Amino acid sequence: MKFILKLILNAVAVLVLAEILPGAAVSNYLSALIVAIVLAILNAIVKPILVILTLPVTIVTLGLFLLVINAAIILLADYFITGFSVRGWFWALIFSVLLSVFQSILHSILAKDKS
């Protein structure tokens, strides 16, 4: 149940970011939910592989290369989902950073409500 609630909160965050950022667009609510699901799958499967493959670069850049990996994950989601679009690397980077901030805020609110 908690996983479904987190997916819904992530879909809401995707919708809010698509309204705020001019470089990102989501066509409808169902597309936002699909984006949340695909991002969860990509973060669970593809991101660990990319982190391991780029570990030397990540260490040299003191972890900042992880932002590039997050942007690549957003662009992969853009490629797979027709109702979601991001204009380029810059907007994907901004989208990923703001999505992380929104997820952190929403999940901390969720954790406070549980206790």
TrEMBL record:
Pfam families: Phage_holin_4_2 (PF04020). The keyword Calcium does not apply. Keywords: Membrane, Transmembrane, Transmembrane helix. InterPro entries: Phage_holin_4_2 (IPR007165). The chain crosses the membrane at residues 28-46, 53-77, 89-110. Coiled coil: none annotated. This is Phage holin family protein. The lineage of its organism: Bacteria, Pseudomonadati, Bacteroidota, Flavobacteriia, Flavobacteriales.
